[in-house]
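Project channel, design review

CF: Before we commit to the Chitinophaga hostae constructs, I'd like one complete example in the thread so the newer folks can see what an input/output pair looks like. Taking Family 20 glycosylhydrolase.
RD: sounds good, go ahead.
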Amino acid sequence: MKKQLTLAYFLKYFSVRCLQLLLLLLPLRSVFAQSRVNDIPFTIPAVHAWQGDTGSYIIPAHVKILLSSKDQQALQPYVTIFKNDLAEKYPGLPVKVEVSENPVPQKGDILFTVTTDTAQGPEAYRMVIDNSIRISGQPKGCFWATRTILQLLEQSQQHSIPRGNITDFPRWPVRGFVLDVGRKFFSMAFLREYVKFMSYYKMSDFHIHLNDAAFKQFFHNNWDSTYSAFRLESSTYPSLTAKDGHYTKAEFIALQQLADSFCVKIIPEIDVPAHSLAFTKVFPEIGSSKYGKDHLDLYNPKTYEVIDNVFKEYLQGPNPVFRGDEVHIGTDEYSKAESEQFRSFMNHYIDLVQQYGKKVRLWGSLTNNKGNTQVRTKGVTMNLWYNGYADPKEMLQLGYDVISTPDGWLYIVPAAGYYYDYLNTKNLYNKWTPAVIGDQVFDETNPQIKGGSFAVWNDHAGNGITEKDVHDRVFPAMQVLAEKMWTGKEQRLSYDTFSRHATAIGEGPGLNIRGKLNTDSLLPLSASSADKNNQLVFHHAAAGKYKGRQAVHLEASDSYVKTNTIGIGYDYTVSFYVWPEKNNKPDAVLFSSQDAVVKLKQQTSGRLGFSRENYHYSFNYTIPENKWTHLVIIGNNKGTSLYANGVLVEKMEGRVQQFPESKSKIAIVQTLFFPLQYIGGAGNSFKGYISDLKIYNKTLSEKTVTTL
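CF: and here is what came back for Family 20 glycosylhydrolase:
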């Protein structure tokens, strides 16, 4: 009995003492948590070096950006962009730039200082983050530091950045993306957005492929009807300028100026002597009778006269159209039977471009087109895309600087069935760097390897691919390749961990090219809620109780309700009820935006349909008049589906166009970036009622659709 009492007493005493000790340790635990050194924060690309501190820098109620007067000229353009970006991210936040002789940062301030340290190159920067942020580097490095800050803020719910010291610089100067605008037109607005998007990921080169031709087998094997385009305004040869979409000289100059301010270099490419159908359609006499009209005749003096004049138009004068220090001259995939003349052609245009003080980029085919003519190497950089055309080891031995652009790793050809529709980002993350060129691997420190570039080639012209579809393919690739081209093989995270964190980083301030909405939403369709929330603007439209439902009535051809959302991208579900009145005209608009139009009656078909980028599609369904119909439209990157009153009407996906003459076929893409900017439209709005418009950030199952 005594033993049992003693044990009970001991257990009671021990429990009390443990509780007392725990209470004593709790404050220490809190202190320890507060003093925990910050882990390296996630950014794309990852910073080179991090020394963690404790706590966080928090964006203050009033932000001051400090510059010294001696640095103002060099940094003012970049600081202005940063100021605007902060204002875009935090509407209403006061952001002020202060210039003084010797600025001293106070709590919350952000100080920029230009240094003369060039050890890690012009893109390096250092950043000290404590109760203020202090950035030093050359001007371009200081700008990249602002992209790091913005990415850190994007991931923070508390508008904070972990304290610590960053030292950062890229392993390669060329971190590029090639866009074929020759076979598919991309609007200038899209290109300008892409400059900002690329800059957000510290990508340095935007290579714009300005001319090309489609494949003859998709145009009845007839060169005259085969699609081709040259995308720049030409005053020398006005008929050369593409009629279905081109850039004026002023627009292209402004694009380069914008790119300069975002530390992105525009590389314009005029592709000759193959891929040149746009030129031979204007001047048939310079087309090759031996190799096809998409090839220039390399022996005809008129060829050189025309192409010289084309290049000169954009290179000469006090304010040339091509403003940067590099121009791409194409030169690829010409018959090796003409190797010597092809090599002479290359030298001619290397000399011509360099005459205007520019460096030259080219594709080159010197392994395929062997010959005795020595092609210039000084001031020439070669995109290495296929080792059978230009063997990397051989090109390096010849003395070329090179850009790793291997087709088997980095070529996107949308919906073509070859190369990649979407790049294998996991394989790229784990195995590729710019030092990997095809099946050859080089030392990452090789100074002749200037970096890498991935590409989108729109080989299948007319296949229905849109700007939004291309961006859907580019976005995941841009995230991974920005990482690989900046850091090389030094990955700290697994691919799965990288991908998980990457979902928190978007396209940059003010951009939503993918059309991602934060939450599922029901647009408020009552006039009172519109006035209260300032979300909707009614024009010749009214909200109220109509036909037994709370709805919007569009009563005239110019009726619309303007929302605060441009549209929604893949994957999505849009649900609504519609009551069309009688006698709506062809092309009557249900929903519209700058990207697409959904129509009650597509053209003269009388059926529900949609149009985007001059492609027009109709569902096999006519909406009945003078009654409510419940419609659900589901969209993903493969196609678009329609449900009417809970029943699947049609799934637009997998369509193929056949070409019997050549036994060829291409996929026809029927995707829809759903327009939400306007219910109705300013031009040809449908007349009737819309109710219960619901937007979902996912593709709902058929079972769920039937319950909406």
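RD: helpful, thanks. DSSP finds 15 helices and 41 strands in the chain.
CF: Residues 94 and 426 are 42 Å apart (CA to CA).
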